[in-house]
Description:
Helix content is 32%, strand content 35%. The chain is an alpha+beta fold.
Amino acid sequence: MSVFINFRLLMIAGLSFILSACVNLPGHRQTIDEDNFYLHITAPSKAIKEEIRFNAEETELLFLPENAQIELVVADDIGKHQLTIKEHQGSIVYHYRLNGRKTTFGDKEKEWFASQVPLIIEKSKYRDGPSQA
């Protein structure tokens, strides 16, 4: 009898595992991982992702929809830059690390990010770049 119970439990566990592999979490994800450039964009849907707005000069992020997030990791001569950008209560929040150390997102960091915006637009393959304000 215990062999039958063990077999049933094993079958249930196996089916649960197989079904979990078929289930996708809701939302839209885009990941670009090339050499020293990693970009991961998440949003509730592709349409919401396309609401992300940069300025006309492609140097600054103007709008990030609610529940959208951009994660950027770039290695260069300075070191490893890690930037996570989220929306929080109507504001864009930047969490920045350089070589693993949390650092204030100041003028120098904003200048670095400005140099990355054209790459973000190009590599994420927005149609003619995201709509600009």
